[in-house]
Amino acid sequence: MEAFSFHNPTKILFGEGQISGLGAAMKQDGISKCLMIGGTGSLKYNGAYEQIVRALNDAGVELFESWGVQANPTLDKVKEIIAQVKESGVEAILAAGGGSVIDTAKAVAAGVFLNDPWNAFTGTEKIRKAMPIYTVLTISATGSEMNGNFVVTNMQPKQKWGMFSPLVYPKLSVIDPSLQNTLPFKQTANGAMDAIAHILEYYFADDKALSTLAINEALLRTIVEMTDRLKRDSKDLVARGNLAWSATLALNGLSAVGLKSGDWACHSIEHAFSALHPEIAHGEGLGVIFPAWIEYLSEKYPTRFLPWAKNVWKEDSIALAVRRFRDKLQRWGLAASLRDLGIKQNELPILLDMIMVQPEIGGVFKLKKEEVRSLLMLAF
Amino acid sequence: MEAFSFHNPTKILFGEGQISGLGAAMKQDGISKCLMIGGTGSLKYNGAYEQIVRALNDAGVELFESWGVQANPTLDKVKEIIAQVKESGVEAILAAGGGSVIDTAKAVAAGVFLNDPWNAFTGTEKIRKAMPIYTVLTISATGSEMNGNFVVTNMQPKQKWGMFSPLVYPKLSVIDPSLQNTLPFKQTANGAMDAIAHILEYYFADDKALSTLAINEALLRTIVEMTDRLKRDSKDLVARGNLAWSATLALNGLSAVGLKSGDWACHSIEHAFSALHPEIAHGEGLGVIFPAWIEYLSEKYPTRFLPWAKNVWKEDSIALAVRRFRDKLQRWGLAASLRDLGIKQNELPILLDMIMVQPEIGGVFKLKKEEVRSLLMLAF
């Protein structure tokens, strides 16, 4: 088992009505003014906004609001919110939404102390400080509620880049699965695929972290089963809760223990899809590229991929497991190919250039430009 | 899924040679003087002591030493070390050893701020403050390296009581599995059984936390497989590492998510065994009572116990799974009955009185005195 360090200081409050604990927690941390960052308004339909206002009001924490974060959040929005933070003099950020909102909050919390928030991504400036972040999660997918990762898109030039800092772990995240009851199933499924992808980025990296691999198989099976249950009944709170917690664990460090830094080639590839076409949901893009990536690599490294077939899909053949995986995603209503995603064949060279900013991608299974070209063709 | 809160702030450094990071971490936390608490000297054989001295020396952290903590650590020892802490003026505790040493360190770290450290256990005083704790783990068993639990025995009267405080989570724990290569197999097996017991205390508590149950099954299977491998080869570092990490996860909060507060009847019962006979290893005592407890309760609640038989032991019958569990423990060289543990029949009434300080034990499956008597007879 590879050496590792593990440290996850985020506190989780999980369950229905747990938003009520948010104000008291902020007060205890000495926060008197906070800026809530929200998306495009679903908070007002699922009941979260009302509960947040009440919790902060009860605790005497003054609430400022910044709305309008979109999927694939942009650097421009981050800069706009940083200006609001400076103007209002808030002491904390409350991210109320999904991964895009939480990622934006992280870029803001760190970026407020930098000359330019994009400098953290380019490496020009180092993150040495960040404002405290609290979150209320409204869709389980990215795991951003319990990690130090964030992804932001710079529109000039189109770059969707990821970043990690131990300073932006949320102090406290509220996961109330019942807030997700009103999600369209497609969004639940995209979130589930995102969580599956996080686990898979680590799963194939090493075959000696047997404890982590066993946990990851348990999480993969649970995510698939719970998503199937939610397809039948979107208000199945047992399934909703177990999917939510599995998605959090999928990228909170636990699934990575002893598995190096993971591979992340599929994420690099998908980031190009949704940078070029911001309407592509991250999870759906991953659902197209991941089965193709497994199919492509398993020819070369069958022993590394066979346990996934056996222990997750109960299949003795990788090809059959890939088919089961693809069928499952299609039954969830997700795209099966790049074409389904709305990508045109003449865009493949553009995508390839966007993906190959380095001569190779993939932390474990190195892929050169020609190989990524073949992989894109396979996924097309 | 039951509501829960989760917060585990302990940082883990895992792998061979990781003790070297200890001094720098302490220095970064502003520690200039620390008291190392040790057991009966194995640190000097497994190489840990030498590495600790070097790491602290390199970082300029002054090291004081307190040796002689025994299995089933006592309140008297805690008081003795508190006096040393006060005299030396150290700012932190470094627990170098197994669960007994770490538990002692926690009782010291909190007890130093109380009128009497036992007051925390009786509830007379509340823990409001604790010294920072660092640990170097030398045997994987109790999970104390990544939780806020500690158990201490008061010899007058004989009471082995457990305690929890969020203030005594270690700041940093070093888990170097190679330090455990020199352990006699019996101790490895006792530790494995202790970790199994921690998972089982939660596992049967609820059937809706499907994500946690799947993780717990993964951990149970991994612990059994890795212990089997270590029986064949005590220097199998892959098995050693995966057993160590599984034992940490068995009681760091993860295995408890959505499973109420667990049951803990078997722990209450075992604490009486080893309070009466301090030579009984906690893990071995648990290995006697747990199969009996499952056998006893599964007659009344078969549906609650069947998933354990199926998913951990691949048996369709609980009785067969209990037999497999008992056989496994016996093959590991652990006692199969109270009699094997050296307990005499005329001691059963004494044990029963020690166990039944309340009219019932068991957080999930309530057991009255008569039922515990039957259970003890079954285990005898």
How would you describe what is shown here?
- The structure is a homodimer of 380-residue chains.
- By secondary structure, chain A is α/β, with parallel strands linked by helices.
- The first copy, chain A, folds into two domains: 11-179, 3-Layer(aba) Sandwich (Rossmann fold); 185-379, Dehydroquinate synthase-like - alpha domain (Dehydroquinate synthase-like, alpha domain), CATH 1.20.1090.
- Helices cover 47% and strands 14% of the residues of chain A.
- Chain A is built from 14 helices and ten strands.
- Chain A has helices at residues 22-28, 48-59, 75-88, 99-111, 118-122, 185-203, 210-232, 237-249, 265-276, 282-298, 302-313, 318-331, 348-355, 369-379; strands at residues 4-14, 33-38, 62-66, 92-97, 133-137, 149-154, 159-164, 172-175, 360-361, 367-368.
- The first copy, chain A, has a six-stranded parallel sheet, sandwiched between helices. Chain A has a two-stranded antiparallel ribbon with strand order 6-7. In chain A, strands 9-10 form a two-stranded antiparallel ribbon.
- In chain A, helix 6 (185-203) runs parallel beside helix 8 and helix 7 packs across helix 11.
- Chain A is globular.
- The mean pLDDT of chain A is 96.
- The A-B interface holds A 1-18, 177, 208-212, 214-215, 217-219, 221-222, 225-226, 237-238, 241-242, 245-246, 249, 254, 257-258 and B 1-18, 177, 208-212, 214-215, 217-219, 221-222, 225-226, 237-238, 241-242, 245-246, 249, 254, 257-258.
- Strand 1 (4-14) of chain A pairs antiparallel with strand 1 of chain B, so a sheet runs across the interface.
